[in-house]
Amino acid sequence: MTPLLKHRTLSAAILDQLRKAILDGTYPAGAQLRQDALAATFKVSRIPIREALFQLDAEGLVRIVPQKGAIVSELSLDEINDVFGLRRLLEPRLLARSIPALAEADFTRLDEMNRQMVAATAAQDLSRWGQLNADFHMALYGRAGQPRSLTIVQSLLQSSDRYTRVQLSDTAGTGIVGMQRAVDEHAELVTLSRAGEIAKACAFLEEHIGTVHDDLLRALERGAREDAP
């Protein structure tokens, strides 16, 4: 392995671990991510740490603040609306282009992902569920032939994963219901896509994303009421 490739592989591994730690709440909103402390933790120089933090800043998971460094981003209502609004615009367009090119092997893979999501739902494993959810959506659009749009959507899915975990962790008991409903809706998306029902599949997808968005806003509203004095 060349030094450059090794460096890139190391940076990517650190990025993945930091992203996971933010998504699962190990580093909560407002936490400061100090480069020197992270470098000591990962036993690396500050260079790959800095690169990972800049990428997390681009993904919206951290903010680079002068004199303070990297701060884990707060949950922002404006960003939530922006992320889910963009998803409702871009994902149906990708699905419409992907459906005609999806092969039976693709549908078999999608079915298997959904079965794994059933198991993650039963175990209430939010981390596993969130990754499978993102993978499912990306696989559904994988034949669209629009790599730039796919890259944007992948970033949006990473951002929405963090917000979705808030919804699924809702103390009102709606989290498990949301997980089960998403699995059922994914199965319907596969059925419509397999049947070549492009218009119906795209409309259903937009509704699916909108439902998650609405549930999240209600969960945040409940949380705000519970936190109020």
Automatic annotation (TrEMBL):
Where does the sequence pass through the membrane? Answer: none
Question: Which domain of life, per UniProt?
Answer: Bacteria
Q: Where is the HTH gntR-type domain?
A: 8-75
Q: Which UniProt keywords apply?
A: DNA-binding, Transcription, Transcription regulation
- One Pfam annotation, family name? FCD
Q: Which PROSITE patterns match?
A: HTH_GNTR
Alphabetically, the GO molecular function entries are: DNA binding; DNA-binding transcription factor activity
PANTHER family tied to this protein: TRANSCRIPTIONAL REGULATOR, GNTR FAMILY (PTHR43537), TRANSCRIPTIONAL REGULATORY PROTEIN (PTHR43537:SF41)
Q: What is this protein called?
A: HTH gntR-type domain-containing protein
